[in-house]
Amino acid sequence: xxxxxxxxxxxxxxxxxxxxxxxxxxxxxxxxxxxxxxxxxxxxxxxxxxxxxxxxxxxxxxxxxxxxxxxxxxxxxxxxxxxxxxxxxxxxxxxxxxxxxxxxxxxxxxxxxxxxxxxx
Length: 120
Hints:
Blueprint: E1 2-7, H1 11-27, E2 30-35, H2 44-57, E3 63-66, H3 71-79, E4 85-89, E5 92-93, E6 99-100, H4 103-111, E7 115-119
Parallel strand pairs: 1-2, 1-4, 2-3, 4-7
Antiparallel strand pairs: 5-6
Helix pairs in contact: 3-4
């Protein structure tokens, strides 16, 4: 499978990185990483460095892209250009048991033709 992993440096996206690396290594998936600036004040360069380090530790090679501009649109364009799955970390559960997602994930969910997997 050809998998695109979106990272914004949040705790949930780093969890998605670890889970996706584990699955990709086991399944032999091809992995591409797209790093973007999320809502938290995280340095994109630090996220790229962390992703690169974890890829190296896992013995995997992957392209790492930096996304700028309208991230939701860029993710949809990239994902719909030959990827089987897009993985994103995100989504919290409200006290009423409803899932809450951010606007980038919502945009991707509504607009992408590619399967979206949310890691919580």
